[in-house]
Amino acid sequence: MDGIGDICRKHNCLFLVDTVASLGAAPIFMDQQNIDILYTGSQKALNAPPGTAPISFNERACQKMFNRKTKPVSYLFDMTHLSNYWGCDGKPARLYHHTGPVSGFFALRESLAILAERGLETSWKKHKEVAAYLYRGLEDLGIKLFIPDRDLRLPSVTTIAIPDGYDWRELLMYIMKNHQMEMTGGLGPSIGMVMRIGLMGYNCEKHNADMALHALADALKNCKKSKA
């Protein structure tokens, strides 16, 4: 992320960052990195049930949002309406926007309290150590990491190149059926190129990495490999 926010400031555009799988697992500094809008998901490294999506706007983004001339096509996408619901727009009148998932908010608050007690630096270190452990195990299996540069990898989600000659869908289905474990394929342009392993939050443990490695080794042994 370093430097991208500076470029956005230079060209007078907003910098929005998706930290769904990284907040709590890897260092991210909204102010220092000149991030204007940052959002995440409750169910990943924050370790809360799915259903809530924390989002943050800095002053620069708020000025842009509150001074725009056109309205969104739907109030569902209207952040000014949402900010009023949360009491963030400075207006005394509060309008109805939606019924909030109250139990989800309390669960998220507790998960954040646990993370704060543990310490962000400790969480970052744990995710990095478990990721490194997983990398070594994958390399021992002869599996290539999709991102060659270790410093550019996200510690909470590891992308591996699909082993030559294997059908990635067959590998994933075998692992789900025989090990009750869900790994996923790529997204967008990476579909058919990678498989993804997520170890984050509560699941960020070496014994879970061992389970993933065992499942992969078993799948490689028992799934058909083309001769081409």
TrEMBL record:
One of its GO terms (biological process) is glycine biosynthetic process, by transamination of glyoxylate. It is an enzyme of class 2 (transferase). It comes from Mugilogobius chulae (yellowstripe goby). One of its GO terms (cellular component) is peroxisome. This is alanine--glyoxylate transaminase. Pfam families: Aminotran_5. GO terms for molecular function: alanine-glyoxylate transaminase activity; L-serine-pyruvate transaminase activity. Keywords: Aminotransferase, Pyridoxal phosphate, Transferase. SUPFAM superfamilies: PLP-dependent transferases (SSF53383).
